[in-house]
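Below: protein 1.
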Amino acid sequence: MGFSFITKDMGIDLGTANTLVYIKDKGIVLNEPSVAARDNYLKRIIATGQKAKDMLGKAPSSISVVRPLQEGVISDFDMAAAMLESFINRALENRGGSKMRLRVVVGVPSGVTEVEKRAVEDVVRNMGAREVYILEEPMAAAIGAGLDVDEAEGCMICDIGGGTTDIAIIALGGIVASTSIRYAGDKFNEAVVAYMRKTYGLLIGEKTAEELKKGIGCAFVDLNELGYEDIKTMPARGRDLASGLPKTIDVTSKDMYLALEESVETIVDGVKSTIEKAPPEIAADIAIHGMVLSGGGGMLHNLDALIEMRTGMKVTVAENAFEAVAMGTGMSLGNLEKLKRYASNRKR
């Protein structure tokens, strides 16, 4: 019996915090944390994704729990390859008697080097992909958020992921001006951990910091109808540095605002510097149309309003903010001629 060949179009958002896989006609089929766990004695991967993330901070010495991507870059090539292979196999259905031809677009931060792009491409090719396109994350996020990247009128996107914040102004299918800051969701978490340690003498883990950020994190505190601060609270559990014993305290949204203040300022400065790099005519377009926020960090409460206050331009959060890059990588496969123009590895 001969093999029937099936071409599958796949978009991958290989993020520092989460990996999302988009398959044509199916949408997002996988959304898992970018974490892998390895048995040090058996020398093999025992878990990836959420199962591996649940082991963070709890694993014995015989198990290494690793995030193979740090600040948007592959820091552990072998673990990244094993993790990605696991995700791709999970995303693809049982192939039966069919051979798969994979055509893959991978989103990477705009500031990565050619060597880093090649490393990502090699990982995906080793999975059996015939065609691999590397698409810069701000371009992918803009396509996924529904912005018209091919028009002469400029559009602006700010994609705040786990490891990097990518800000870009796009026109005529290309990036006119961009800034990539290795400061994003992970740094937000670190800021929360540092604040809790300094203010309350409480040592919390990264997982607890992320839950606090998602639950009551904000760029500034809301005011109620009477003009007073509308304070929200959430319990945080950790270890008391004085007694060394477990302790639970109530953390307020004001605490989170103070913890994240410096981090948010870094993002605002990045937005301002990107606008300063843009040609005057493009800057005029941005003044009219504003900017779109995407990525998990872009969903931080009141971040859009703060950037709007600081820059004077309209800021909106993409409806599919968390999935925008993955959606964009997949959607770009709909027009291969345009994709070859967008892709940053098109010359290879």
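Below: protein 2.
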Amino acid sequence: MSIEIRKVATKRELRAFITFPETIYGNNPNWVPAPVFDDMGTLRKDKNPAFEFCEAEYWTAWKDGAMVGRIAGIINRRYIEKWGNKYARFGWIDFIEDFAVAEALVRTVEDWAKSKGMEGVHGPLGFTDLDREGMLVEGFGERATFATIYNHPYYSQYMERLGYAKDIDWVEFLVETPDAIPEKVLRVNEILAKRSGVRVIEWKNKKELLATYADQIFELLDEGYAELYGTTPLSEKQVKAYIGQYLGFVDPRFTKVMVDEQNKLAGFAITVPSLSDALYKCRGRLFPTGWARLLWAPQHPTTLDMLHPDDGPEPERDREWDQVFGDEPRAGDQHRHPGALEELFQAAAQTPPRLHQEALAGKGRRPPARGRPQPISGSRR
């Protein structure tokens, strides 16, 4: 039977679009769904401030009366202005193990992009670099985090058949935390802190953090990530939205900020208790019991997710500051004795001094790949 592509037009259809992956991964414990309310806020044009400079359409694929795939097409005008590439991007891509379904979805985005005057398509990408993005190419036996994408091995195989190639690797690490930080490390940490003039601020409540450092955190994020693949500067409205999304649930034991001699923010690490197990069990839904699981998980952590470590764009200071900063989340870890720390690094795009943290890894995990931009003129065969 032929495959039918339908454009998402209503809120009910958008919810079905968001929850579709459950039909593929519902019994796979390594899959971690995005919170439904989070995706709704991201994909709705009246909710996401990125639509000030982005446009997007969403499609679902149907076969034999059942939904069998989904895909989003996005055009980020700020990306085009910054990088000079007239590329559309695809994201939120999922499909059953049927090449014809994948082909129908990808060709739909390519045709849409061409109609908008675009010259290429790449992805999986979101509206900004803070959305879920990338395609898993290794580590299928590892559990995802709530900030990363999980997919089956056939996804990348189908994309290669469609003419796409890997453009960049992102690597995620699982770091086993010690029972205690060695005294020698603490002494070196103290010496480097004095030499570099930086110190870690101890804050006690979220209100204090938000009032003093929230805007600075996202300014530093823009600076530090400016040269990473596909990034675009955040607008004021986006910063306000992300402050609520990322800083609304931080814990002073695990999220650290560092200032220089002028008390200006010099670095930060947003680290949160893992929500992977809770999100899998509630399928990303708050009701009827999801809210309770999501409240319980941060109080009983065994794993932490380090989401956004950053110490600015100056590579010459990275090694010293990373040494000073790197021990702080682990020092905080000991209050709850989590067994591991998940650190997400966009490794291929980082400056070499930052990559020294690879040495802390017990094992490497999940290097997801973004698709190399596919020229629209050559994508259809």
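Confidence is low (pLDDT under 50) at residues 327-372, 377-381.
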